[in-house]
Amino acid sequence: METWQEILQQSITSLDELARLTECDTTALSEVIANFPMRINPYFFRLLTAPGDPLWRQVVPDRRELDPGPCLEDPLGEEGLSPVPNLVHKYPDRVLFLVASSCAVYCRFCTRKRKVGSDRLRVTAATLNAGLDYIREHPQIREVLLSGGDPFLLEDEQLADILSRLRQIPSLEIIRIGTRVPSALPMRVTPSLASLLSRFHPLYVNTHFNHPRELTAEAGRACALLADAGIPLGCQTVLLKGINDDPVTLRQLFCGLLRFRVRPYYLFQADLTRGTDHFRTPTSSGIDIMRSLYGHVSGMAIPTLALDAPGGGGKIPLTPNYLVETGEELRFTNYLGTACRYPEAG
Ligand SMILES: *Cc1c(COP(=O)(O)O)cnc(C)c1O
Ligand code: SF4
Fold it and tell me: What's the CA gap between 239 and 264, in Å, rounded?
C-alpha cells in the first residue's frame, strides 16, 4: 500500500498536469499559480466530479484570484500581532503558532494564502525555538493552537518533538491542532499518528470540512482513529459562495460530522483575503442559514457563525436575533416563529 508521503508526492502542482487530467483550458491561470501555489493530491482529485463542482472550486485555481477587490493581503493583521515570527498573540490566554508551511491541498480561499506553500512562510529550528521561548516566558498563555500550513504534514518525529517540547512548559495547559488532513488526505491519519498524539493530552484537534461530499469512508476512518485516541474533535468550516452557502448542504455537513464524532465548532464568514473575494457571501445569508438550524437540528450539530474582524479585532459571533423586546417582560420569537415571553428578574 502507498504511504501518505507517496500519495502527496503525486499531487497535481502544474498547469500542464491539470490540463491533461481535466481536459480544461488552463492557459489563463499561470499568473494565478505564480502568486498562489496549487496542490491537488490524488485522493482529493478523485473526489472532484466536474468543473465548477463544490469540491473543484475549493482547489482548482480561478482567474478571479487576481481581482484586487476590497480585500487585504493580511486580513487579520497577523503580522502586526506577531511578537516573534510565525506566532500570533491576539488573545490574552492563547496563541496561534505556525509550525508547518505546507498543506495537503492548497485551498483557493485560504486566509493565509499570501504565505502558505511559498517561501513567505518558513518554519525553521530558529522560528520553532523562538515560539517555544515566547510561550515559556509568557505564563498567561494557557493554550497553543498549532497551525500553518498543516501540522499533520510534518513527519511523526517532527510533530512529536514539537509536542514534547510544548509539554515541558508547565504553564501551558491545552494543545489544539488545526488540520485539514482528515478531509483532504485522510490516509495521513495513521494508527501511529493517533497513538503519538494521545501521549500529549489534553490535546484537541479541529478539522476543516466544507461540504458533505468530503465525508467519505476514508475521512470517517481518520476521524475514528483520532476519536478512539481520546482526542476531542471539532470542525472549522468556511462559508463559501456557491459551494456550501445553503441550509440543506450545511445541515447535511454538520449532521454528518456528528456521526463522525466531530463537533462543528465555527462556521466562518470568509475573511477579506486578497484573491478570495469571489468566495464571500453576504453576512445575512450566513445568519439566515443559522436560523434554519437552531431548534431544527441537534444543538451539538450547530457551530458558532463568526467573522474575524479585519485588522486583528478578533472573532465576532453572528447570531440570529430572537429577542423582540426587552423590559419587565422579555419577548421572543422561537425557532418556529411562535411568540414567547419571560418575566425579567428584579
Ligand atoms: C482564531 C484564533 C484563536 C482562537 O480563537 P478561539 O475563539 O479560541 O477558537 C487564537 N488566536 C488567533 C490569532 C486566532 O486567529
Ligand atoms: S489547509 Fe488550511 S492552511 Fe492549508 S490552504 Fe487550506 S485553509 Fe489554508
Answer: 13
